[in-house]
Amino acid sequence: MSSKQDIHEKLIIKIGKLLMKSARVSATSWDYAGYMFETKDSVSSGGEIFLYAGRDRLVFDLDFDDQDEIIESFKRLREVTHVDGDAYWIKCLVAVRSDGDLKMLFEFDDWSRWKISPTNVDRAYEILVGEIYPDAAGLN
Questions:
Q1: CB under 8 Å to 33, separation ≥6 — which residues?
Q2: What is the per-residue pLDDT across 67-93, written as a single tens digit (0 to 9) for each?
Q3: Whole-model pTM?
Q4: Residue 103's CATH number
């Protein structure tokens, strides 16, 4: 029987592989691919998918089956990372670098964190990539 930790690690690897696969299909050259997943109840959920070459945002095609699979993986990850007595996380930001390095952050309270809107779209790279890889965004 797999432990919660084993399932947790397998889900993270699965999410990373799906992002890498889609990034490679979407662009011949890229630096960072990622997804910002958010959910209130693990039923209704959404997110922001991103792909960058340098600071230029590229078109990122996540096919329908992969989109469903990544959302289900995030939902499952939310369940297996939950600690009894604590709140569930509401957002997860994951980014994978083209060399395969993957990092993931969780948010428990702030719905505005990592939110891209018309008022901050010019800072999307710093918000999405720079939060996880500060050196890439010149934030260190």
A1: 19, 20, 22, 23, 50, 51, 52, 60, 95, 96, 98
A2: 889 999 999 999 999 999 999 999 999
A3: 0.90
A4: 3.30.500
